[in-house]
Design a protein that fits this description.
Layout lengths: L6 H6 L5 H5 L1 H11 L3 E5 L7 E7 L5 E7 L5 H11 L7 E5 L4 E5 L2 E5 L5 H15 L12 H13 L9 H16 L5 E3 L8 E3 L7 E3 L5 E3 L1 H8 L4 H5 L4 H15 L4 H21 L3 H13 L1
Antiparallel strand pairs: 1-2, 2-3, 3-5, 4-5, 6-8, 7-10, 8-9
Length: 298
């Protein structure tokens, strides 16, 4: 079968990733052979930082082979999955850090929490997050939220959103980050990129829904909830009264885990604005504009 990178991955990487993309089919074939895996299909459209191949294993089982891009190291993802050990998240069965390869238990990739009505999806999402928020462990390899967001904050200061005339929002977002980091109350292991689409249906007896694709960081819970706060953004943009809906959503999410709504609002603001900067840099102007509109509602 053809092992070409799906279109989303092929067009999403930085310029320096072109060589890795060119050699990706050969890399995937090498890992498949070495781990005695039989490819079934490449998932599409796939993500922007990895390639996922559904596979059969030599023992008759089924799994998913994930090859992570160099700009999204597999070692950190594997370390987080190992720390969670299946509690709220998919399990890693094998790992080759040099190849960026993870062999994961098979979930139902076509069924995420986005398939549920919004209220039910939010309840399930918060339930999964509660299980993921654990102590990162002594000597852990995970960056802090401050470290993880430093480069993104610098990009905003350097004018990542200059083309959209968003300076007031950028200043507010950067001020919110500085204030939040100055008084960060927790140092827990976070998923880092948690949203409804990153929680998939599972046949595992331990849980019906499991998280995938972490971008693990250490910090406060409000940082994780901030990404969830803007879920189904396109539906939200199209809704009448979107601003009031957004503020109620933030309040409910904060209340559901007994957090400060103001801290959640601050992280939601920063994360929306910095995501807009990255979207604009990647040529996704309409996405950037939607994110900035969301930020104004906060």
């Amino acid at each position: 079968m053809e092992l070409a990178p799906p279109a989303r991955l092929a067009t999403a990487g930085p310029p320096e990733g072109a060589e890795w993309l060119a050699g990706l089919p050969e890399l995937v074939a090498e890992v498949l052979a070495r781990w005695e895996l039989t490819p079934e299909r490449v998932t599409a459209p796939g993500g922007r930082t990895s390639m996922l191949v559904l596979v059969g294993c030599a023992d008759g089982g089924r799994a998913a082979l994930k090859i992570c891009a160099p700009w999204r190291p597999a070692a950190l993802e594997e370390a987080a999955l190992r720390r969670w050990d299946g509690l709220g998240a998919v399990r890693a069965l094998r790992h080759d850090p040099a190849a960026g390869a993870l062999l994961l238990e098979r979930l139902h990739g076509e069924t995420s929490l986005r398939s549920l009505p919004e209220a039910k999806a939010t309840l399930e999402a918060v339930s999964v997050l509660r299980r993921l928020w654990v102590d990162p462990g002594a000597g852990h390899p995970f960056p802090t939220v401050a470290e993880h967001t430093a480069g993104r904050a610098a990009a905003l200061r350097d004018g990542a959103l200059a083309a959209l005339d968003a300076e007031p929002l950028v200043e507010s977002a950067l001020a919110a980050r500085d204030e939040l980091l100055a008084g960060e109350p927790e140092r827990l292991l976070l998923h880092g990129d948690f949203r409804q689409g990153a929680v998939l249906a599972s046949d595992a007896e331990r849980a019906p829904w499991l998280a995938v694709g972490p971008e693990p960081v250490v910090g406060e819970r409000a940082y994780d909830l901030a990404r969830l706060a803007r879920d189904r953004l396109h539906d939200l943009v199209a809704s009448p009264g979107a601003a009031s809906i957004t503020r109620r959503r933030v309040a409910r999410l904060a209340d559901s885990v007994e957090l400060s709504a103001e801290r959640l609002r601050g992280w939601a603001l920063f994360r929306a604005v910095e995501s807009a900067g990255r979207a604009l840099s990647a040529g996704r102007r309409s996405e950037a504009e939607a994110l900035l509109e969301f930020a104004t509602w906060l």
